[in-house]
Amino acid sequence: MSKIDEVRSAMVQAMKDKNKDRKDSLSMLLAALKNKAIDKREDLTEAEENEVILKEIKQTKETLDSTPESRTDIIEECKSRIAVYQEFAPKMMDEEEIKATIQKVLADLGIQVPTNKDKGKIMKQLMPQVKGKADGKLVNQVLGSMMQ
After folding, report:
1. How far is CA 72 from CA 26, 32, 75, 112, in A?
2. What gap in Å lies between CA 64 and CA 85, rounded to an integer?
3. What is the pLDDT of residue 84?
4. In this predicted structure, what is the pLDDT of residue 124?
5. Which residue pairs, CB below 8 angstroms and at least 24 apart, start in 35-39?
């Protein structure tokens, strides 16, 4: 079952439960997925669906970060929307999994002790392996902590 079908069935359930906030969030996510499919003019792959979901989460977090603290209504709406989107997001890698992937890349490149000069080379090999599975900022932090 595609993510579009999953989101649509969850949205129908939210309507039956009369949960307007959840239904609105799911409606926005469904629209984003459908728009991407329309732009592509064919069905989305699982990776593309996950990319759209992660993009929506990122945009909502940016809205949350830029909202003044006095606007508690927007803050609550963003938090609930992120919680709904997280249900459909792919499982992200944790620090240990990222470290293991970095170690593998270092072994492939023959680098014993990574330095700042090697960072570009490492990231070039590493990012395609973790794209859509890990947050880029976290990957950068983990790699930075491993460097000399």
Report:
1. 21, 25, 5, 50
2. 14
3. 92
4. 86
5. 37/4
Do 98 and 142 form a contact (C-beta atoms < 8 A)?
Answer: yes
Predicted model pTM = 0.72
Give me 35's structure tokens. Answer: 């728009």
Euclidean distance between CA atoms 19 and 64, whole angstroms: 22
Q: Residue 8 corresponds to which tokens in the numbers above?
A: 């649509």
What digits encode the pLDDT tens for the residues 32-53?
A: 999 999 998 988 888 888 889 9
Task: Say if residues 23 and 15 touch (Cβ distance below 8 Å).
Answer: yes
Residue carrying structure tokens 């699982």:
46
Q: Higher model confidence: residue 131 or residue 29?
A: 29
| CATH numbers and ranges of domains, the chain | 3-88 (1.10.1510.10), 95-146 (1.10.10.410)
Average pLDDT over residues 117-128: 84
